[in-house]
Amino acid sequence: MRIAVIGGGPAGISAAIWAKRLGLSPVLFERDKHIGGQLHQISLPIVDLPGEPGITAQTVVQNLQSHLHQVKVPVELNVRVVGMEDRRMLTADGGVIAADKMIYAPGLKDRVLAVPGSECISHLSTGEILRQRLSPILIVGGGDRALEAACRLAEAKIGVSLVHWRATFSARPEFQDRLKALPVQVMLGAQVVALKAVAEGCQAEIVTDSGQRNYVTANRVMVRIGMEPDLEPGLLVGLHGDIANSQPGEDLMVIGDAVTPAPYRSLVEAYASGMRAAKSLVIKE
Ligand SMILES: Cc1cc2nc3c(=O)[nH]c(=O)nc-3n(C[C@H](O)[C@H](O)[C@H](O)COP(=O)(O)OP(=O)(O)OC[C@H]3O[C@@H](n4cnc5c(N)ncnc54)[C@H](O)[C@@H]3O)c2cc1C
């Protein structure tokens, strides 16, 4: 049975490895130039992967890569699947891929900041900004991902301003402590109300809770105000019911973070969802 696994994050990789082990013929499709998904955004050692305390995300990616190679799962990079028709998947560059079953593990994308001028928001990752040495950077958000990005950039001597609409951060204490030691301009109780493209990059209009209006110009503006499922509408036509309840064994199953309630999103859950999807294709109940 030909299985197309769409999304090369932990959930999709797990599904592909399990499918291969169960005697199926999976192919893994990833739209980026590398597998790993959100693992590329993790900078601190991972402390909650059982049996691997303190492992780095980079090592997890390398281990997953070697595992796929070892069990000979074909991996097709730079392929974005955008739709499906009967049992064929359509790719963004006009390609068509035939498969008997599809396991869709798209993960999450950044939540959008809905303000005028939002087209000047950068979609570069923290790693890419570091590689290009872009500075200064304005980060919007107050959770783990916002503070982690602020710390990584400031530690690399990139100018960082951080604006958050609440009076306190929601990020875990480790990030808040790390931030305190860095020269980051922090604006709490302040909201970005408009953005404008300017010669230096992007100018943000920021209004504080007390009504004060400030303007900050940055080379890039990064928005880290939470994440939401990264679903391609063209693929969901293959689902018979609600996306969160795609049934095991259906032609198209959705797995991983995209269908996991926020508190349970984790590597362990992503791996488990891949295993369940693959096994559901062979288990006859
Ligand atoms: C900063 C940060 C820290 C974290 N720390 C931890 C931690 O310490 N412990 C822990 O257990 N978890 C942690 N997580 C969560 C963990 O990384 C996720 O739960 C896990 O990566 C989810 O795996 P996934 O495969 O569902 O999605 P993702 O990792 O998001 O992977 C989805 C993949 O699908 C690809 N894709 C999407 N759509 C398409 C398409 N149409 N065609 C082709 N490819 C597509 C994407 O490019 C991506 O590579 C952290 C996450 C972040 C962001």
Describe the protein in words.
With 285 residues, the chain is α/β, with parallel strands linked by helices. It has 2 domains: 2-109 and 227-280, FAD/NAD(P)-binding domain, CATH 3.50.50.60; 118-223, FAD/NAD(P)-binding domain. It has 7 helices and 17 strands. The chain has helices at 10-21, 57-70, 126-132, 144-155, 173-180, 233-236, 267-280, and strands spanning 2-6, 25-29, 75-76, 81-85, 88-91, 96-98, 101-104, 108-110, 137-140, 160-164, 185-188, 190-198, 201-208, 213-218, 220-223, 227-229, 252-254. The strands form 5 sheets. Strands 3-2-1-7-17 form a 5-stranded parallel sheet, covered by helices on one side. A 4-stranded parallel sheet has the order 11-10-9-15, covered by helices on one side. α1 (10-21) runs parallel beside α7 and α4 (144-155) runs parallel beside α5. The radius of gyration is 21 Å and the shape is elongated. The protein starts with a strand and ends in a 5-residue tail after the last helix.
Quick synopsis:
Helices cover 25% and strands 27% of the residues. The chain has helices spanning 10-21, 57-70, 126-132, 144-155, 173-180, 233-236, 267-280, and strands spanning 2-6, 25-29, 75-76, 81-85, 88-91, 96-98, 101-104, 108-110, 137-140, 160-164, 185-188, 190-198, 201-208, 213-218, 220-223, 227-229, 252-254. Helix 1 packs parallel to helix 7 and helix 4 runs parallel beside helix 5.
